[in-house]
Structures are given as structure tokens and as C-alpha cells.
Amino acid sequence: MILDGIFKGNDEQIKKYRHLLHPRLKVDRNGNAVVPKYFYVPTLCIDAERREPGSQKRIPSEEGDADNLFLMGQALYIMSELLVDGLLHINELDPIRRYLPSYNRP
Predict the structure, then answer these.
(1) Higher pLDDT, 49 or 105
(2) Coil/strand/helix, residue 84
(3) Measuring CA to CA, how many Å separate 5 from each of 27, 60, 92?
(4) Which run of H or E residues covers position 21?
(5) What is the mean pLDDT of residues 48-73?
(6) 83: exposed, middle or buried (C-beta count within 10 Å: 0-12, 13-18, 19+)?
(7) What is the DSSP letter of 56?
(8) What whole-number percentage of the chain has pLDDT above 70?
(9) How distant, in Å, are the alpha carbons of 36, 47, 77, 81, 102 from that of 73?
(10) Is the dihedral angle over the CA atoms 16, 18, 19, 24 positive or is it negative?
């Protein structure tokens, strides 16, 4: 949704989803942000979760740590950070501008 906001020029959407994403990132031993592949409810808490969905704490998966990166999520995160920080331009990511209507493309 961050990338969607960047392509649409929607600063509120970018801010909202960055705010939601950052607390969910893990940090590796070098201090780099790592995107977990998924979150799960521990086995001991499954019954309580079934009784009241959303009530239990989710734990990040081991897939998506420094030794076992979830490459798709990590790539999307890095691209969004580069675009937001102005280190990458949309046209460098999509040189033929497929995100534009056909009549606006070069």
C-alpha cells in the first residue's frame, strides 16, 4: 500500500502505511530492518484466539530474519523506502510508465 500511495501521489496513504509497517519490522544483528514473512498465533493461544478473534499477540515468523530473508517482502520494503526518501524516482522503477493511462505514456 506504500508503493500504491507513491504511484498515486497520496502522501496520507504513504504516511499511514509506513506508520503501520515500521513497528512490525524485525531488526537483524546489524541493525537493518527485516520484513517477516508472516505472523502467527502461538499454539497455546489458539483456543483463546478462536473464542475472540484478534485478541492474542502475533509472533513474527522465522522466515524473514537475517539468515532466511523473505525476498519479495524485503524487496518491496527497500523499493518503497528508496522512493519515499527520494533516492529512486518512479520513472527509474517503471521506465515505460505503465502506471499511467495509455494516452499519457511516452
Answers:
(1) 49
(2) helix
(3) 25, 25, 17
(4) helix 11-21
(5) 87
(6) buried
(7) S
(8) 95
(9) 8, 30, 6, 12, 29
(10) positive
Total residue length of the chain: 106
Mean pLDDT over the full length of the chain: 89
Q: How many Å separate Cα 63 from the centre of its chain?
A: 15
**Short-list 31, 33, 1, CA closest to 18:** 1
The amino acid sitting at 89 is H
Better pLDDT: 61 or 104: 61
∠7-13-41 over CA atoms, to 5°?
A: 115
Cite the beta strand spans of 1-106 per DSSP E.
26-27, 33-34, 39-40, 59-60
Which residues, in sequence order, are CB contacts of 27 under 8 Å at separation 6+? 33, 34
* Run of H or E residues at 46: helix 46-51
Tell me how many degrees the CA angle 1-95-75 measures, rounded to the nearest 5. 40
